[in-house]
Amino acid sequence: MSISKQTHIVITVYGIRTFGQWQRRLERLLSPSDARVSFYHFEYGYFSMIAFFFPFTRWIMVRRFRRELRSIVARTQPTRLDLVGHSFGTHLIAWALRGLDANEHIHVHTLILAGSVLRSDFYWADLVPSRVSRVINDAGAKDVVLLASQFLVLFTGMAGRTGFVGMNGPDFSNRYSMFGHSGYFQDPQGRPNDAYMEKHCVPLILYEDKVETFDKRDTPTPWRGFVIWITNNFEPIKLVVVTTPFVAGLIWVTALYVETNATKERMAAVIDLGEAMKQRNNLPEEAKPLLATLQQALAIPLAKKTVLWVDDNPTNNLLEKRALEMFGLCFVQAKSTNDALRLLNANPGKFSVVISDFHRPQDSKSGYGLLDEMKKRNSQIPFIFYAFSFTEDQVLEAKARGAQAEVRGAIDLWAETFAAIHPDSTSVGRLELITQQVLGCAQGGTNDLRSAHRIATSDSTAGTSNMLQGSQLRRAWADFECNVKEMTIVPFGHVDKIRIAPPSAEAFEALASVMLHHGYEIRSSETDSYFCRTISGGSHRSVHSYGIALDVNWNTNPRKTTPDRRMVRFSSKPTQDGRAEDVRSGHADTDFTPTLIADVLKIATKKGQRTFRWGGDYSAIKKASHFEVALSPQELEIGIDPATVVKNASVLLPSWQ
Questions:
Q1: Is 61 helix (H, G, I), strand (E, B) or coil?
Q2: Where are the domains of the chain?
Q3: From 581's CA, which of 77, 230, 357, 428 has a CA 20 to 30 Å away?
Q4: pTM of this structure
Q5: What values do phi and psi take at 371, rounded to 5?
């Protein structure tokens, strides 16, 4: 019997990873039969499997569909409302209906579900017949897609494969076919096919007749029945598998918090014991400063504080920095008064303390210069002199000029630094604390000698964008490839001569000048330039084949693989022999100093283009002995800027006199 000619609304909802082309085809099948049927197709774009995995994103789409459903019913006041959903669309429809208020007058006449991702135990008795007159669940016994929903996605299932459990009758039916997820509107080859919709869906929407049920599945064996039972009841296992990483993470974080809190409590207990000994006059006099320092350390806030440390030799203070970093301090290094002032101007409010040495031979403003400049600018940042030796008069003068203190030794430095960071300063929230722990001192801090090298070389990075790489460099110097006749021999230092491409001669003279300025001894037996060969382990020519590369003292600057892509490790020894011993013992990668390398990387043309690339800066393989010209012959024609080359009058090469 045909339905009456009154307002009849049909709403369709498609699944994920599709745009629901079947919806328009179903509309065309129904439209000629009854002009009074109005169609609405709920569209939400391409809903990915990743979004389907998370309950929250599914909840957002359910909430959106429920609002749309209310709006359509309120506008049209239909006498009959039918819903058709496929795959994820069945999830949207079912949970949207369940979320309606009991007093809302929205009633569905016929609900057709196909390939449903709902769990088989979804409880329809709450909705049928109060909210829905009849539910027809079309299931495909070969639906492989729904296995992913059942085994991987929380709070979903495969009712579109195994059917819903519960009472079947005139108002609720499971129908089973032997096809896959999209067999309701496609043939086995994946081509559009409307036969199933026309025979089994259209009559349910146009007529009130009894639902024709069918089950085309084979009779299950006992084993298959057991597998089906396990599959349908997989939710607890799925819940355990999905939540285990989160639970483990929560346990780890909790244990970390307990351990940290216990450590703090133990430290506090030691301090309390020391205070008790002090009150009873049992604490040695020399231990009292240490006790005061520990009390101050325990009182400082957890928020990261940044210290500006001014020293022309940053490696002198590595131990002090590492110890202070344990208390949440980060460091920014400056090597001169002018560098420090630039950092202070560029980062107002960033620095909590300034620590400075006193004598810097190359800095005309060392001594009280930085302190005086800060006081002229009304800076309130605490200032601490950290010097090897001083007199009482110098301490008094420093304080008179505005310094907080002038100290020697780590304990005194700690005490004054902690005193400068007040316990009542702004505390840090838990989220920020976690962020700080993850990032550490990444934003401007210097943690060790490798970081000091990065800072020392930062001024030399200008002009690096034009430096040539690999194949570009080989093309630029192609005329010199393995062409020994085109090479020229030039002196390098006092005891060596090297064979290079003539356009690079001035650059290598500048390199030699820098090494001699730093008193670096070049051993001719371990230093070489032009050599026609391929790259080790590769097929391309080495840059040595073009006369633009030089390896210096390769025994104490060896080739090393660094799969962790760490920074190069420098030695802190003051002599070249001492640094070489650190290399041989495996404690360092090079006997060059950070300042020597920084000065090499400052060498630039008169157009400001940086000239050299250093093998110690490579990531996976360190070649600390290796220096190569990274510009083309044409770019070198303008010449090297003498102002970028550090020189020593007693060792200058002819080109630099």
A1: helix
A2: 8-219, 238-283, 287-447, 460-656
A3: 357
A4: 0.46
A5: -60, -45
